[in-house]
């Protein structure tokens, strides 16, 4: 997904555009003086990609400067380049190149989010937390409200569709435990949107139920029923209720005759039964929830 950055003026407005370092734009900074941006949602993992980045940094150094602002007492607050900084530290570099920007807290938040959203491997949780941080910063700046116009403006600036931005901001209502389960595929995004309407207590109940049974999967239909149960009778909503609602419903076997004329020709004869079963499950979910198919993607395909 291409989330190309806009220029500084479009991100912050003319009054708060970032200012380059007076020393000439790029300066070498002791890496031990650079702190991560407070509460930044982007994960830095010691995985294969990080090993490759570390090897590259050890061989040729940090080619793309970090973006940071001075935070006082000679220290720096990192806005962009958390993975590059981590790789530099693993490679044993003492200094890293930094471009200094002079921005306030809200502008720094917007810049931190927008510069990191270009990464293609972000998890749902990272995008949700980041987009919500961006929205709160814009609200504090007076550049946003709760209207659809604001959502669409944010979407245009971030290179997403308005509906994708709305889903991400809504997913930020989930606690960390449930949002991690979205990342792990145990809760599909459309199911998570139902659970985002629950209060902290109800979300904790769902999280405990899922933690007690690693094989438990909260599908879209189950999430809709959990939401209804928690909102309609919060006093009796507990882990047992969650588990019961997630169990497949067994019904008496019925025979059904259908014409094969409406089954696509590419479906092999041996797979028709399975294809019909999955089609029926999909339609049942759509009917129960009044929305599209269950899935793990936040995007509506228009990004």
Write the SSE topology:
Elements lengths: L7 H5 L14 E4 L3 E2 L12 H13 L5 E7 L2 E6 L1 H10 L3 E6 L4 H12 L7 H18 L6 H11 L3 H10 L4 H8 L5 H7 L4 H13 L7 H13 L6 H8 L25 H18 L14
Parallel strand pairs: 2-4, 3-5
Antiparallel strand pairs: 1-5, 3-4
Helix pairs in contact: 2-3, 4-5, 5-7, 6-7, 9-11, 10-12, 11-12
Radius of gyration: 24 Å
H/E element sequence: HEEHEEHEHHHHHHHHHH
The overall strand count is: 5
Strand proportion: 5-15%
Query: Which stretches are poorly predicted, pLDDT < 50 over at least 5 residues?
Result: 1-24, 288-296
Mean pLDDT: 80
User: Tell me about the biggest sheet?
Assistant: 5 strands, mixed
Number of helices, where a helix is a run of at least 4 consecutive DSSP H or I residues: 13
Helix content: 40-55%
Tags for this entry?
single chain, 303 residues, alpha/beta, 5-stranded mixed beta sheet, 5 strands, elongated, disordered N terminus
Write structural notes for this entry.
This protein is of the alpha/beta class and 303 residues long. The protein contains 13 helices and 5 strands. Strands 1-5-3-4-2 form a 5-stranded mixed β-sheet. Helix 6 packs across helix 7 (162-171) and helix 9 (189-195) packs parallel to helix 11. The longest helix is centred in the middle third of the chain and has 18 residues, at 124-141. It is elongated. Mean pLDDT is 80; it is low at 1-24 and 288-296.
